[in-house]
Amino acid sequence: MRVMKKILVIILVLSAFAMSCTTPYYPEYRRLVSLGAYTGDVIVEREAGETSFPVASNVDYEARIISGETWLSFADAEGLSVNKSGNSTVFLKYNKVSQGPRVARIVLSAENRHDTVKIKQKGNYDEFLEMHPADKAKYLTLKDGTRMSVAEEGGKFEIRLEYSCRDTDIKVWVSHPEVITACNIENRVFSFEVLPNKTMQPNIMDVKLSFINGWEEEVELTFSIRHEYVTK
User: Fold this and answer.
1) Cross-strand bridge partners of residue 149
2) I need a labelling partner for 226 at 20 to 30 A (CA). Which of 79, 82, 111, 163 fits?
């Protein structure tokens, strides 16, 4: 009997030890914070009005307007921020736009979690960057209107453009700056020079004109240049 009792005690001690090794001990339980808007972009019309967007959260959070405060505000609170709790909706109101498209930002914050929502308002005009139809037909040879052919000796070119921004807003990028030089945009004309082809083979070079619109998105015009070379 004594032997059986000793064996039983040993089994109980070993079981308790095994449980203490396998069962995790949490001195302080912390819930995982969840916070996020159902959409990253909210598009609103030109006229003044109201809008909203839902937020999924399991904690209290703050919504704060960090840009666009001159035309955007909270519909149910004063100031640039509002406190919300759990799954809820952020309500906004906005003024009428007088010029082009514009964007505002709202940041949601709770402890170490953050999310950003853009409020994009349509403008009184669309933003665009295009080649003048007559010059597009003159210079771009492919059917899809994306390639220009330049003779081996190169040359100087002036291409008329149509765009909704200022001349100085447009950035020019070329894949071969050592060949495509003297790039300039002024009075809706893109001028540049292509130097003679010295590589002894035809080359394809890329040109990109672009600007950032009111929604902080890139508007671009791209085309390629086939620099010819005639085998001697």
Assistant:
1) 226
2) 163
35-121 classified as CATH 2.60.40.10: yes
Question: Using one digit for the tens of pLDDT, what is the confidence trace for 103-116?
Answer: 999 999 999 899 99
- Residue 139 token pair: 């210079």
DSSP code of 201?
Answer: S
Whether the full predicted model's pTM is greater than 0.90, yes or no, is no
**Angle formed at CA 12 by CA 10 and CA 17, multiple of 5 degrees:** 95
Q: How many CA atoms lie within 13 A of 111 on its CB side?
A: 11
CATH 2.60.40.10 fits 129-227, yes or no: yes
| Cβ neighbours, 10 Å, residue 218 | 12
Paired sense of beta strands 49-57 and 72-74, if any: unpaired
- Closest Cα partner for 160 from 136, 141, 194, 128? 136
pLDDT tens, 125-148? 999 999 999 999 999 987 777 999
Strands 189-194 and 155-163, sheet pairing: antiparallel
Q: Where are the domains of the chain?
A: 35-121, 129-227
